[in-house]
Specification:
The complex is a heterodimer of chains A (235) and B (550).
Chain A lengths: L20 E10 L3 H15 L1 E2 L2 E3 L5 E3 L4 E5 L6 E5 L2 H20 L5 E12 L8 E15 L4 H26 L14 H4 L8 E2 L2 E8 L4 H16 L1
Parallel strand pairs in A: 1-8
Antiparallel strand pairs in A: 2-9, 3-4, 5-6, 7-8, 7-10
Chain B lengths: L7 H24 L28 H11 L9 E10 L4 E12 L8 H19 L4 H7 L5 E10 L11 E10 L2 E9 L4 H7 L26 E2 L34 E4 L25 E4 L4 E4 L46 H12 L6 E4 L9 E2 L11 H4 L56 H6 L35 H7 L11 H24 L1 H11 L1
Helix pairs in contact in B: 1-2, 1-3
The chains are: A alpha+beta (235), B alpha+beta (550).
InterPro entries (chain A): ATG101 (IPR012445)
Subcellular location (chain A): Preautophagosomal structure
GO biological process, one term (chain A): autophagosome assembly
Chain lengths: 235, 550
């Protein structure tokens, strides 16, 4: 497991111009497991990085809406994850993950790629300069896609990937618990520089998702995964 | 000096936050072990009773138990709130799976703002708890509960007791939140020697496992509080409706939300068990067994010698998996009323029992409604999400084949049939079934030769009355009797499929069974005096022989 790299804490309240916390997670999955594995990780991060909707009142106080949660069972992995109850957010993530999966698939059967979830703040600049996007947390999920030969291997993969995802969730929670830099709670005029206020039921921090497909490593990845599975079978 | 730094309002707020945090923690944990998916709705506008800005339902019974355990106190150093999760089989045996601990240590963070930062961090910690409760091994176990076992919870306050988790238990930290009076820590210790049983055990694949002896150890501490099932009410006489959760004073007033609390009314339909549910007592006794279980992991088979019963070596291939659907004649064979010791009767469930259990598997909390009765509340009745999914399975989906051992010519045949449910051992359902009687042995009484019907035959006869003569339609085809050469046997004619199935799991040779070994040793011992006498007679010959060697 790669140890998460963290940057030093910036002074509270200051924009982290050069500091951005970066975490990297790696998973090896079968093609049909890619979407669910990505959704599980992304939703777990966003669960921790979303609040209820803010409603500002006079005198600078505000109320916060309520975030509901729901369990999602995976079809291709022995795993259940929790996500915030927001269909809009789920749709947005599924769209991004779907594109990523398609890109992986079209790159060849033995694909490698990574998907990134970046949280940022907007910093307004004076004209003629455009607003800056300053990232303060970056999650990268590296994906190896493997091909399995038979049903028995697939069954083992279901369980193994489920166990791996359990570890990833624990890793994510560890990072969240460090209580490191979070953007200051904004005033009403600043709220759109910190949060995504476009959804109707929850309010995640401003985020963007991007991905890239890296070069396939050819057979070596498949061989390693196959060996891992065979070792498990040999018991 | 410590308390003077904190304003009295802050102190009051902090105490309230910690109290409700403890109550919500218990709700999240117990709800995560109910055996079903949890679903709550987001709401743009707060309702005032949604502590920490999270929609976490309050099951009144659970809150009641938590408050009882806390008895007005708050977690402090040396006084932790613990939620113990355990598994209880229909035979009455139980095993601790997890202990969730909410602890407080002395490390204080004086600078932190109570009503703002601490509150938000407690909210974050609850989200982490939601996530973590789905990734410990007990989660998957709890999703499959209902038929052969149930998951129970127990709340206690005081010193953490981890000894019931067995050796090598693992810990996962959910998180910490620093406050001016100490640091709140939430963690989970869970048994791991059940982990490899969790998914494999209850599915088709035969697991490689042994029964761990330490399950049978008497609990060192008698439970000071009763265990509670996570997903059904133990007995209808407990049917009191618990008081609503929040007094009007216990609103989560923070700088954020201001609307009044809503009331929760909780009703449960009758328990779905057809037989009385296992008795829940204050002191749980796990029977200490006189039987020894030995592991034979090298041969990857579970073997045991129940010497007390005098049954022959029962070295079986695969332990019997669960009763649902296993034996058509006794679909609920392994479910009996809970008992501590003694032989349970094996009721054969009436047809509607199947129905109820089937419902139970898929929708365990069918009758649960959480309704907000406040007039001003816009929230309607919400039902806990019951989605029956393929994985849940009805009892009949679990196993389709009955595991039957056919006894071969050289195999040590058992004397009588013993069903595991009759044996007074814990977790009897995990142990293998015995072989059947000789009468059912096809080697002794071969089955009738199956009709060798060519697969072509069926397709030749057209369904509709096409008018063509039925007698002539198969003139173009030659009927073939499908008898593969290697399976053709005058003594035991059978088709390939049957042959393969029956000889797929050959029983162990009797010469390898210990009983035969013991027998022959007894014979050897008996014949010793005789042999000695013969050798004595031939002493001179032996001496001569020895001479030639030197």
């Amino acid at each position: 497991l790669p140890s998460p790299r963290t940057s030093r804490r910036g002074p509270p309240g200051a924009a982290p111009a050069m500091n951005c916390r970066a975490e990297v997670l790696e998973v090896s999955v079968e093609g049909r497991q890619v979407e669910e594995a990505m959704l599980a990780v992304l939703h777990t991060v966003l669960l921790h990085r979303s609040t209820g909707k803010f409603h500002y009142k006079k005198e600078g106080t505000y109320s916060i809406g309520t975030v509901g949660t729901q369990d999602v069972d995976c079809d291709f992995i022995d795993f259940t994850y929790v996500r915030v109850s927001s269909e809009e957010l789920d749709r947005a993530l599924r769209k991004a993950v779907g594109e990523f999966k398609d890109a992986l698939r079209s790159s060849g059967s033995d694909g490698m790629g990574q998907i990134s979830l970046e949280f940022y703040q907007k910093k307004k600049s004076r004209w003629p300069f455009s607003d800056e996007c300053i990232p303060w947390e970056l999650w990268t999920i590296k994906v190896n896609v493997v091909n399995l030969a038979n049903e028995q291997e697939r069954q083992i993969c279901r369980e193994k990937v489920g166990e791996k995802l359990c570890e990833k969730i624990i890793n994510i929670v560890e990072v969240m618990n460090r209580h490191e830099y979070l953007p200051k709670m904004p005033t009403q005029s600043e709220v759109d520089n910190v949060f995504d206020t476009s959804l109707k039921d929850v309010q995640p921090y401003l985020y963007k998702i991007s991905y890239q497909i890296t070069d396939s490593l050819g057979t070596s990845v498949t061989t390693t995964m196959r060996r891992l599975i065979k070792d498990t079978l040999a018991l | 000096a410590m308390d003077t730094d904190l304003s009295s309002q802050d102190r009051k707020d902090l105490d309230k936050f910690i109290k409700f945090f403890a109550l919500k923690t218990v709700q999240v944990i117990v709800q995560a072990r109910l055996g079903e998916k949890i679903c709550t709705r987001s709401s743009s506008f707060p309702t005032g009773s949604d502590w920490f800005n999270l929609a976490i339902k309050d099951i009144p019974e659970v809150t009641h138990e938590a408050k009882k355990a806390l008895a007005g106190q708050l977690p402090a150093v040396g006084r932790s709130m613990c939620v113990e999760i355990s598994l209880k089989t229909s035979e009455g045996d139980s095993m601790e799976l997890e202990i969730w601990c909410l602890e407080m240590n002395e490390k204080c963070d004086k600078e932190i703002k109570v009503s703002y930062t601490v509150y938000n961090r407690l909210s974050l910690l609850l989200k982490s708890l939601l996530a973590i409760t789905r990734v410990t091994p007990a989660y998957r176990l709890s999703r499959k509960q209902g038929h052969e076992y149930v998951i129970l919870y127990r709340i206690y306050f005081g010193e953490v007791q981890l000894s019931g988790l067995g050796e090598g238990f693992q810990t996962v930290r959910v998180g910490t939140v620093g406050t001016p009076v100490g640091t709140v820590t939430l963690s989970c210790a869970y048994r791991i020697n059940l982990a490899f049983m969790s998914t494999r055990q209850f599915e088709r694949t035969p697991p490689i496992m042994g029964i761990i002896i330490d399950h049978f150890v008497d609990r060192p501490y008698p439970s000071s509080s009763p265990m509670h099932p996570c997903n059904y009410r133990a007995g209808e006489d407990n049917g009191a409706i618990y008081p609503s959760v929040e007094d009007s004073q216990e609103v989560c007033t923070t700088s954020f939300s201001t609307s009044p609390p809503s009331q929760c009314v909780f009703t449960v339909t009758k328990a779905h068990f057809q037989t009385p549910p296992p008795v829940v007592t204050d002191t749980l006794k796990v029977p200490v067994m006189g039987l020894a279980f030995s592991h034979q992991l090298s041969s990857s088979r579970l073997s045991y010698q129940p010497a007390a019963l005098g049954v022959g070596s029962a070295d079986m291939g695969y332990p019997v998996l669960f009763a649902g659907g296993l034996n058509a004649a006794h679909p609920h064979q392994l479910i009996g009323p809970g008992k501590e010791g003694g032989v349970p009767p094996i009721p054969s469930q009436p047809a509607h029992g199947t129905q109820a259990d089937q419902e139970r598997m898929c929708t365990p909390l069918d009758g649960v409604h959480y309704s907000a009765a406040t007039p001003s509340s816009s929230e309607d009745t919400e039902t806990v999400s019951n989605s029956s999914e393929g994985k849940c399975g009805s009892p009949h989906d679990i196993l389709e084949t009955i595991f039957i051992r056919k006894v071969g010519a050289f195999v040590n045949k058992p004397i009588n049939q013993v069903t595991m449910a009759n044996l007074d051992i814990p977790f009897a359902m995990f142990a293998p079934k015995n072989v059947e009687l000789e009468d059912n042995d096809p080697m002794v009484n071969p089955p009738d030769s199956p009709e060798t019907e060519s697969p072509l035959q069926g397709s030749l006869h057209s369904e509709g009355s096409s008018g063509s003569s039925t007698g002539n339609t198969h003139d173009d085809f030659v009927m073939i009797d499908f008898k593969p050469a290697f399976s053709k046997d005058d003594i035991l004619p059978m088709d390939l499929g049957t042959f393969y199935r029956e000889f797929q799991n050959p029983p162990q040779l009797s010469s390898l069974s210990i009983d035969i070994g013991a027998q022959s040793m007894a014979e050897d011992l008996d014949s010793l005096p005789e042999k000695l006498a013969v050798h004595e007679k031939n002493v001179k010959e032996f001496d001569a022989f020895v001479e030639t060697l030197q």
